[in-house]
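To the team - GLP complex, inputs and output below.
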Amino acid sequence: MRILETGSYQEMSVLAAGILGAQVLLKPNCVLGLATGSSPIGAYEELSKNCQNGLLDFSQVRTVNLDEYCGLAPENPQSYRYFMDQHLFSRINIRKENTHLPNGMAPDLEEESRRYEALIEGLGGVDLQLLGIGHNGHIGFNEPCSDFPRDVHQVQLTESTITANSRLFSRREDVPTTAITMGIGTILKAGKILLIAGEEKKEIIERSLFGKVTPQVPASVLQLHRDVTVITCKRS
Ligand code: GLP
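Output:
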């Protein structure tokens, strides 16, 4: 595991975008696993700039996102599909049909979970997975629990996650209470993993990277993966 400490959010974003960009240059038709939240916004901004000035070409890149809320349509500004279109996909030359997220509006969410797991496998697996981390150690939406969930599945969000994410909604009651997420097994199958986290995640980062490997701290499982890079920043 490589741990890179940077002095600012901007520095972390440039470094993360450099790693993601290098993946695209090395393998133009790579599969990128992408994340939402405030942590990756700066990296997406850098990737967009690098595409607009001709340094990066996303025309063959495929993407799969970690998760999506249940019950939010793609046009809903709080949905992760909307977030990805706004912060990245509409700003780079990626083909829309090559960008994938779970469908949180699917009538049968178990069926949708199976479809999404199979889709990732059908793309040949994820080359590089970008992750953020929740204050309780969640990755994607894998909340602390008694066993590491293997495949894509539906989850009940914890109160602490609903509270943390309510900052992005006008009312707490509007935050969905369920989501579809890649499982821990799905995430661990990625060839490489890149985790980015701000100063406010210092404590959970330490517990995850140096504490006991336990499903109570989902990100602790990353200790078992052979190619993980963690970028932290001193100030947000
Ligand atoms: C959400 C997402 C996670 C993300 C986390 C942290 O819960 N499902 O994938 O890592 O938020 O977000 P932030 O980067 O805003 O702290």
